[in-house]
Design a protein that fits this description.
- With 595 residues, the chain is an alpha+beta fold.
- It folds into 2 domains: 9-209, Beta-galactosidase, Chain A, domain 5 (Distorted Sandwich), CATH 2.70.98.50; 212-589, Glycosyltransferase.
- The chain is 33% helix and 20% strand.
- It has 15 helices and 28 strands.
- Strands 6-7-8-11-17-15-14-13 form an 8-stranded antiparallel sheet, covered by helices on one side. Strands 1-2-3-4 form a 4-stranded antiparallel sheet, with no helix packed on it.
- Helix 4 runs antiparallel to helix 5 (281-296) and helix 4 packs parallel to helix 6.
- The protein is globular.
Length: 595
Amino acid sequence: MKKTHKYDMGVIGNCAFMAYIDTTASVRWLCWPRFDSSFVFGDLLDDEKGGEFSVKPTAKIKETKQYYVTNTNILVTEIYTEDGDYKVTDFAPRFEQDDRYYKPLMMVRKIEPMKGTPSVQVVCDPRGHYGEMTPQKSQGSNHIRFEGFDQQMRLTTNIPLSYVMEGNSFVLSGAVYTVLTYGAPLEAAIENTAENFYTRTKRYWRNWVKSTSISFFHQEKLIRSSLILKIHQYEDTGAIIASGTTSLPEYHKSTRNWDYRYCWMRDTYYTLNAFNNIGHFEEVEAYFKYIENVTKQEEDRYQPLYTITAQKKITEIEMPLKGYLGENKPVRIGNDAYTHIQNDVYGQVLTSLLPLYADERFTNKYRMHTKKLVEHTLQKIADTMEEKDAGLWEFRDRPGHYCYTFLFHWAGASAAYKMAQYFDDVKMADKALKIKERAAEMIEKCYDEETGVYMQAAGAKDMDASCLQLITMNYLDPNSERAKRHLAGMEKELMAKDGLFYRYKHVDDFGAPETTFLICAYWYIEALACVGRIKEAIDYFEKVSSYANHVGLLSEDVDSSDGSQWGNFPQTYSHVGLMNAAYRISKKLDLPNFL
C-alpha cells in the first residue's frame, strides 16, 4: 500500500510575501521581493540549490506539532526531542500604522524552550536567481549581511553571531529571535520590536476575522480558508494569485508542473464571490482596481492571466532544478497559458464587475470610467461566440466550442444587461439580451439527448465537471428534471469516492488525469445544495474538506485512491470553493443559531 502524500507545511504571509514552513521549522519556500520573484529559500524544489533556513535540534526528534495561533496567520511549530522541547513561532508582520498597512519584507522567528535544555542549530543560507547565486556572508555588529541580491538582505538576531556564521549548536536557555529582512533592515531593539510586532500582528488578524460575516456552518474551516485567501492578495496592486508555488505536480512524476504565481482572470468571479459572501470589501475594491488596470491596456483580447503587476508577458521556461521530491521535472517558471485563447474570460470580467452596480454598498466612485470597459467586453463576447478556444482547463492541443465558455458568455451578457439598466442604456440592454440568447443556443448544442447531460463541448461525448455550474449559476432551473438528470449523469461518470470529482476523464495533451480536482468537488457540493439534496451536500462537504493537511490547508488535487495531496499548494481555487460551498449550504439551512 502506497504512503499517503500530504504537504507537511504551514504558510505565513502579510500580503507582500509568503513563506512555507514545514513541521521541523524549516523554511521550504520563500520568494522575495514578490510572489513571482526567484526564491531565496527553495528547498521545496531542490535540496542543493535551494538554500536553507532551519532550526534543528542536536538530539533526535521524537514528535512535532504545528498549528496556527487562533484566528491568525501566525504559525507555531513545536519540536519534542530526547534532550528537551522547544517551539518556533513564525510570522510576517502586518498591522495598521500611520493610516496604512505596515507589511515589510520581514520574517520574524521566535525560538523558545518549553521543557528541558534543548540544543539547537540555526542555519540561514539563502540563494538568488533560482539557486544559481550564492551570496557572500559578512558579519555586522548584531546582524549577518547577505550580499549579491538586488537589495540588501540581513539576518538580525540576538543569537551569538559566531554560532550562526559557523553553524554551531547552542543551548536554548531562553527565548531568542531572528529577523530576516529584504530591503530596509531592522535597526531597532530586536526583542522588544519582535514582541511588539507579534502582538500587533495577532491583533490585526483577529480584528480582520471579527469583521467577516461567516455563518456557524463549519466556521473554523471558513476562517482558515478566508485567512489563507487574504494572504494570496498582493496588496500593492490588488492582484490575487492562484498559489504561491510553482511546479508542484498534479501527481507524482506527471510532468503536469505549472507556475501558479500569477493572477487568472477566470478566478476573479469565484474569488470576488467568496469575499462578497464574507462581507469583505477592502479586498474586493482592490481587486476591481487591478482588473481595471488589466483590461484598460487591452484593445483586442484579454489574456487568461497576467502578472501581479498587470504585465502581459509571462514567458514559460524550464529551470535546471531537481524538482519536487527530487524527481518531478520540469520545474517551470512563467506560464505559457498567457498566450492561449480562453474566451470565458470576458464573461468572468463582466460578472465580476456587476457588484459595482448591483450592490448599494459600493459608492459611485467605483462605477466611474467603466461603461466603455463594459461595452468593449460585451462586444468581445459577441465577436468570439463562434470561435474555438482552449477552454478553462487550458488544453494545449484540443481547441473546441466549450460549454463552460458559452456559460460565461451567457452569464456575462446577463450581467451586462443589468449594468445597462444602471446606465439607462436601452441599446446596450437590447444587445446584451440578444447575446445572452445566442449563448444559450450554443450551450444547447452541447446537450446530449441520449444521456441527458451537457457535454464538455458541442459535438463531443466527454463529460466535464465545469458543467456542474449550469446548475449552480442557474442556467438550469435547479428544481427541474433536466437539472437533476444532468447532475445524475455527471455523478455516474466523474465522481470518485467521498464526493471527489475528476475534471474530465478523457486523454489530453499529457495523458489521462490520475487525480481529482478539488474545486470540482466543491462545485458538486454546491450543485447538491441547489437541487435540494442538503444532507448529501453537508456529508460530502465534510468528507472533501477532510483532505486538508494538518493545519487545514487545501491542495489543488487529491488522489482519490489514498487521499494524497498534489498540485500547487495551498490552492486559492480550492479554498474559494470551500467558502462558496459553505455559503450555499448555510443559506439553504437558514436555521436559528440555537438549532
